[in-house]
């Protein structure tokens, strides 16, 4: 009897004489490269459009080299200053050289702006000194600089100067939570008139929770009707839900201004039917009330759609089975139907909350003073004050807060239970 068993030393070859193991390895490698090529554009997009901007924001929140680069000579010699009194003559000599060069290169305004962020009201010290710096031809430089502006003889002024020449700093994060670095390099609370950011964070959180809660209260019955009405009626209702998406966000917001302002349509109706007197018209615009109303209208579809997609998958037989076992309509709805819709409620709530906590356009247009959110202050520092470090720190704290809330939601409810249908 012939032994046809393949021995371990035997190599299985294909028709072209190549080992089958080698061929399989090549095919696997080609499949992996093909899959990588398909995924690579998405990976590059995520890196360029998501990870890189977040990394730049994190770096900007602790890295502020502009002042030290402009005052580079002074930055070197002031390191030896012990922080007592005011610096020595050679520091003032370096300062004169730096200011003279900054005036020629037209960067003295940048240095003045950066210093003003740390010590408000000092921008004019740099600009006024820059206009007169050419009059200083020789020492002693200390007396000449103090004669130009007495602020150069201030102890606190030079303490701030010494801190600002450092390229890395935590002062932006301290400012973001209403703290500062004191005269003795201790962490101190900001003066009461400058304590604004913690209040804005709290207001943003509270208003976002209110908006999310109102969206749940309004969106749940709408989603239930969409899932249970006959098709011809549910399609019409779906069109009404999606209608805001077909209208510009700016148009929707300005429409609420027309409706809710003191001389608006809603106030005219209320006054016309005699509910309030003409001189007591309701103030529903340019405050927190206007922000909440307009944002609920804008964000409501973001809760309705995921909730409806979950409700649509719930078989009607579950409710009938509960009724057949003696449960009332309300009991069946409460104990059978609602628990199955909680994944949709969670998905829609997270979506609405994250969108509302970073909303910008609507609070800017209708919020007034009491309806502004932290995103409006971030935009202010990015576009007007140009304090990008503080804006980055505020945005980072907001990002961390959202991630912490998401982590808390996962611990309490569980992300695995969140569904979009």
Account of the 3D structure:
- The structure is a single chain.
- By secondary structure, the chain is mainly alpha-helical.
- It folds into 3 domains: 20-52, no CATH class; 67-167, no CATH class; 197-417, MetI-like (MetI-like fold), CATH 1.10.3720.
- It contains 19 helices and 2 strands.
- The chain has a two-stranded antiparallel ribbon.
- Helix 10 (197-228) runs antiparallel to helix 11 (231-242), helix 10 runs parallel beside helix 14 (288-311) and helix 18 (374-383) packs antiparallel against helix 19 (388-412).
- The protein is flat and about 100 Å long.
- The mean pLDDT is 87.
Please supply descriptive tags for the structure shown above.
421 residues; mainly alpha; two-stranded antiparallel ribbon; 19 helices
């Amino acid at each position: 009897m012939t032994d046809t068993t393949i021995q371990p030393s035997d190599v299985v070859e294909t028709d072209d004489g190549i080992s089958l193991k080698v061929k399989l390895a090549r095919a696997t490698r080609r499949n992996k490269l093909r899959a990588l090529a398909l995924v690579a554009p998405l990976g590059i997009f995520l890196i360029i459009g998501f990870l890189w901007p977040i990394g730049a924001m994190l770096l900007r929140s602790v890295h502020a080299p502009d002042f030290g680069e402009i005052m580079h000579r002074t930055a070197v010699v002031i390191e030896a200053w012990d922080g007592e009194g005011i610096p020595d003559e050679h520091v003032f000599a370096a300062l004169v050289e730096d200011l003279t060069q900054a005036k020629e290169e037209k960067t003295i305004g940048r240095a003045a702006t950066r210093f003003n962020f740390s010590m408000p009201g000092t921008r004019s010290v740099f600009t006024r000194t820059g206009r007169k710096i050419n009059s200083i031809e020789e020492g002693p430089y200390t007396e000449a600089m103090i004669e130009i502006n007495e602020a150069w003889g201030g102890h606190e002024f030079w303490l701030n100067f010494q801190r600002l020449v450092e390229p890395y700093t935590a002062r932006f994060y301290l400012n973001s939570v209403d703290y500062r670095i004191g005269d003795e390099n201790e962490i101190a609370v900001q003066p009461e008139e400058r304590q604004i950011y913690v209040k804005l964070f709290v207001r943003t959180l509270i208003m976002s929770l209110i908006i999310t809660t109102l969206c749940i209260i309004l969106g749940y019955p709408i989603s239930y009707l969409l899932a249970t009405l006959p098709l011809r009626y549910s399609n019409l209702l779906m069109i009404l839900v999606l209608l805001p998406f077909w209208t510009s966000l700016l148009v929707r917001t300005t429409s609420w201004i027309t409706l809710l302002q003191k001389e608006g349509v809603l106030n005219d109706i209320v006054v016309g039917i005699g509910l309030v007197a003409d001189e007591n018209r309701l103030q529903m615009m340019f405050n927190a009330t206007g922000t909440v109303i307009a944002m609920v209208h804008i964000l409501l579809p973001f809760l309705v759609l995921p909730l409806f997609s979950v409700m649509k998958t719930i078989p009607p037989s579950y409710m009938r089975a509960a009724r057949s076992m003696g449960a009332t309509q309300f009991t069946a709805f409460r104990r059978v139907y609602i628990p199955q819709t909680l994944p949709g409620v969670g998905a829609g709530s997270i979506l609405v909350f994250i969108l509302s906590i970073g909303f910008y356009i609507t609070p800017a247009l209708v919020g007034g003073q009491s309806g502004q959110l932290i995103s409006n202050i971030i935009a202010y520092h990015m576009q007007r004050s140009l304090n990008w470090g503080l804006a980055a720190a505020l945005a980072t704290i907001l990002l961390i807060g959202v991630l912490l809330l998401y982590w808390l939601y996962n611990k309490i409810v569980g992300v695995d239970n969140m569904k979009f249908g």
